[in-house]
Amino acid sequence: MSDPVRLGGMALGNGVLVHGPEHWACAIRTNEGELKVASGRKAFLAGSAPRPFAGPLKLVEAFAVIPLVQRALPEVEFPFARPRIAATMLVSAAAVRALRASRLTPAAQETLGALASLVPAAVALRGTALAAYHGAEHISIGSYEHGEERAKEHERCGSHLVGPLLLTSAAGATIARRVAGPLQPLARVGAALGAVAMSVEIFGWMTRNQRHPVARALAYPGHELQHRFVTAEPSAAQLEVAEAALRECLRLESPARGDGDDAEAPLT
């Protein structure tokens, strides 16, 4: 039996987006109850980029399909377009700004800032249709990958980046603060990009070494975030939508069966 196609995904307010090495497929449930499916080839492919660029470029590849989905399915509801989520993002940004203006140490500022940017959005997601579609995304993709029915939590969910990001952001900010004068803003940008790149690399290691004690410790915050806030048990209708997106993506990927490079594709 051949290995499964490496897939990523994104939960939507009214559906699920699934993407493979070269193609994407999206399924939504309209307000009238109609199931709509659209698919196509990705606009940008990361290719075999060298590390540590492979992981971040995979994220760019995944988000580059958003305009394509919007054009194909105008009814799609992206998470960041929902007023409730947008409001929590504004609150989070204000909290982060306040923390960075405080007298806390750089490491404490970055650690608390990362938490402040996550908690309001997590609370806003709890019990919503978006959380249920997030669970449906995990169940459909996880069941396909493992060949058995899986739970609503997935080991490659982007929430597992939380642990690594807390550590790398704190370390990067501490180093950037040591750069004096006009170069400090540039150092901060470099530290932020470096933290993301390093976190994605750590994330990939975690998914390949799930039984390792360090991997388990790093994954714990993300797992709890998934379990308690950002996923919910989906209905049969929501699972049908996720399965439709999965089948369509696999249909497009099956002729090529190109699994890309070794960079892990997080589920969001």
Would you spell out the secondary-structure blueprint of this structure?
Blueprint: E1 8-11, E2 15-19, E3 23-29, E4 35-41, H1 54-63, H2 66-72, H3 83-100, H4 106-125, H5 129-146, H6 162-177, H7 184-208, H8 213-230, H9 236-253
Antiparallel strand pairs: 1-2, 2-3, 3-4
Helix pairs in contact: 3-4, 4-6, 5-9, 6-7
Number of domains: 1
- The end-to-end span amounts to 28 Å
Q: Average pLDDT value?
A: 82
Shape descriptor reads: globular
What structural class do the secondary elements suggest?
Answer: alpha+beta
- The helix content, as a percent range, equals 55-70%
| Number of E-type strands | 4
Q: Strand order of the main beta sheet, please?
A: 1-2-3-4
Radius of gyration, in angstroms, nearest whole number: 19 Å
Helical segment count: 9
Please write the string of helix (H) and strand (E) elements: EEEEHHHHHHHHH
Instruction: Give unreliable regions as ranges.
Output: 258-262
- Quaternary: single chain
**Main sheet, how many strands, which sense, barrel?**
4 strands, antiparallel
Instruction: Please indicate the percent range of residues in DSSP E strands (runs of 2 or more).
Output: 5-15%
